[in-house]
Inverse folding.
């Protein structure tokens, strides 16, 4: 088994030294990867005492008696930071590289199954009675803009 690409079940995101990412510290945008070199507490994600997030060397340099290096939150015994979203390079790679075609197809099927049937979506629309009551109620509509110029006039 290699550590190039994997999946972290706890944080629900891709991991590994083949996955470009941003440092998970909220004030940092340094590009790193999600390999073992950058994981909190030098441990396999969630397999050790760290939070399982990934940090640049600047934000991973806190040492304690228990950890070789960890983030400031783990050092202080606090809840972890919120993980950052995927790096744009990684999103583009997964969206376009042929090696991810099978994954894209499987994800599309999952999303299609998660969508409600059209009949349910149509029945969620307010009934005629509800729409009439809403229209006749004393709620105020947004003001109508008057004397505005059309786009072509600029």
């Amino acid at each position: 088994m290699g550590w190039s690409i994997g999946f972290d079940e706890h944080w629900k995101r891709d991991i590994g030294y083949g996955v470009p990412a941003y440092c998970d510290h909220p004030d940092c945008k340094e590009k790193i990867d999600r390999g073992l070199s950058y994981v909190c507490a030098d441990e396999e994600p969630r397999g050790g005492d760290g939070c399982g997030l990934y940090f640049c060397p600047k934000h991973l340099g806190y040492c304690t008696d228990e950890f070789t290096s960890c983030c400031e939150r783990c050092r202080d015994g606090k809840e972890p930071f919120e993980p950052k979203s995927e790096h744009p390079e990684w999103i583009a790679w997964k969206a376009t590289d042929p090696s991810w075609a099978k994954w894209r197809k499987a994800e599309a099927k999952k999303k299609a199954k998660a969508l409600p049937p059209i009949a349910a979506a149509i029945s969620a629309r307010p009934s005629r009675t509800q729409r009439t009551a809403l229209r006749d109620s004393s709620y105020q509509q947004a003001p109508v803009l008057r004397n505005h110029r059309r786009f072509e006039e600029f």
User: Anything to note?
Assistant: The radius of gyration is 24 Å.
